[in-house]
Write a structure and sequence with these properties.
Oligomer: single chain
Strand order of the largest sheet: 3-4-5-9-8-7-6
Number of domains: 2
Helix content: 10-25%
Radius of gyration: 47 Å
Largest sheet: 7 strands, antiparallel
Number of strands: 21
């Protein structure tokens, strides 16, 4: 019996043991759990404390996943930047098509398109017809000065083939950049547009015209030289005889060790010079020729330029206004010292001389060597110690030749010989 009760007790023990779990052994908290607990909680935590849940660790990247590129750091102050690509070469505002303002008159004379144009004068202007070409130009108006320097080129388009303003403006802007001046004016039912490009020495002007309701077409492109500032001791030379004065010729000369300046100026711009007699400003042009001297400095004031002799011509109040035809400084007496030669003309005289002036400087004073007024369409020839003046007497009536020789005793030119030469028909 005792054995039976013992067996039954052993079999019933597991039935009473399963609701009570096995007590787990005490273990130390992990580092992540310790970080979540406040530092002051050594045992139990108060019921009002907030428990910070541990953050999930970021997923591990795949083995074959591409790594992100490293972040670029800005270059330091010693870093060298790569050079910028060179800008496309700009077309200077001195050239259009086959014409270049920096060409001499001799080079223009050699162009096949200008073979039939008279460009033989030492200085002047000419209106030349052009053959049909891809540039669509009809005429070329050229102005040049003594020494063969071309100062203006006015290239007039053929009215029947003139390009549209937008096309030509696009070409010039592409080559020379945006224009520095854009001007629009209205005359009755026509609109006239002017665009300008320039650099330190040149200016290019595009003119276009059209009715108000129609696209404008190009009229002409004018290339001209700009007035360069004076340099050195000539910086203080500031003649202002009239508004719009422009120096067209200047030469520095020394007499007795003192600097002098012989200058010739005009009221015409280079573009107006190219227009010639057909331009509206030609008849009212004003001219100025003068000899200036640089004085000595004093304790009260520095060296200053002062005029020794001045001559102004032209204006609105003269019927047959005079204008300066030629100015030069060369030795005409034969003593090795430069002298001043000035030839004046008139509106009805063309390229001939109506007055001749020859001067020099001696001991700081201006001396007259020869002065001839009221010449009739004269041609002047000069050689050392001699001046020859040829005046026609009329249509097919011969020529009077007056020869002046330099008299060293008088220090001036005197009439040595006067003779009449018959016409070629006599």
């Amino acid at each position: 019996m005792r054995r039976l009760l013992t067996a039954l007790t052993l079999c019933a023990a597991p039935a009473f043991a399963w609701p009570h779990p096995r007590k787990a052994p005490r273990s130390h908290p992990s580092a992540l759990q310790e970080a979540a607990l406040p530092a002051s909680s050594a045992g139990s935590r108060p019921s009002s404390a907030t428990t910070t849940l541990p953050q999930a660790a970021p997923p591990r990247p795949l083995i074959n996943a591409p790594s992100p590129p490293p972040a670029s750091t800005p270059p330091g102050p010693a870093a060298v930047k790569p050079p910028a690509p060179p800008a496309p070469p700009a077309i200077p505002p001195r050239r259009f098509g086959r014409f270049d303002l920096d060409q001499s008159i001799a080079q223009l004379r050699a162009l096949p398109d200008l073979k039939g144009c008279d460009l033989s004068a030492d200085a002047g202007h000419a209106d030349c017809a052009l053959p049909r070409d891809a540039d669509k130009l009809g005429r070329a108006l050229i102005a040049w000065e003594t020494g063969g320097v071309v100062i203006a080129l006015r290239l007039v388009f053929d009215p029947q083939a003139a390009p549209a303003l937008t096309d030509l403006e696009w070409q010039l802007t592409r080559g020379g950049g945006p224009p520095v001046l854009e001007q629009l004016r209205r005359e009755k039912d026509q609109k006239i547009l002017t665009l300008e490009w320039e650099d330190a020495e040149h200016r290019a002007t595009l003119e276009a015209q059209g009715s108000l309701a129609q696209p404008s077409r190009a009229i002409a492109v004018t290339l001209e030289r700009r007035q360069l500032p004076l340099s050195g001791e000539l910086t203080g030379l500031r003649p202002r005889p009239f508004p719009g004065f422009r120096i067209r010729w200047l030469k520095r000369i020394e007499w007795d060790g003192a600097p002098h300046a012989l200058l010739w100026g005009t009221s015409l711009s280079p573009a107006q010079e190219a227009l010639g007699e057909n331009g509206p400003a030609w008849a009212t042009q004003r001219n100025y020729v003068a000899l200036w001297k640089l004085g000595s400095a004093s304790p009260q004031q520095p060296r200053r330029w002062r005029p020794l002799w001045e001559r102004e011509t032209g204006g609105d109040d003269e019927d047959d206004a005079q204008r300066v035809l030629r100015v030069d400084a060369r030795d005409v007496t034969g003593d090795g010292v430069p002298d001043v030669e000035v030839e004046l003309s008139c509106d009805s005289c063309g390229a001939t001389t109506s007055e001749l002036i020859v001067k020099t400087v001696r001991a700081g004073k201006l001396v007259d060597l020869l002065s001839r007024r009221e010449l009739f369409r004269a041609q002047v020839e000069m050689a050392p110690g001699q001046v020859r003046i040829r005046e026609p007497e009329g249509e097919d009536q011969g020529t009077t030749v007056s020869t002046y020789a330099y008299d060293r005793g008088k220090g001036a030119f005197v009439l040595a010989r006067e003779e009449r030469m018959g016409s070629p028909r006599e």
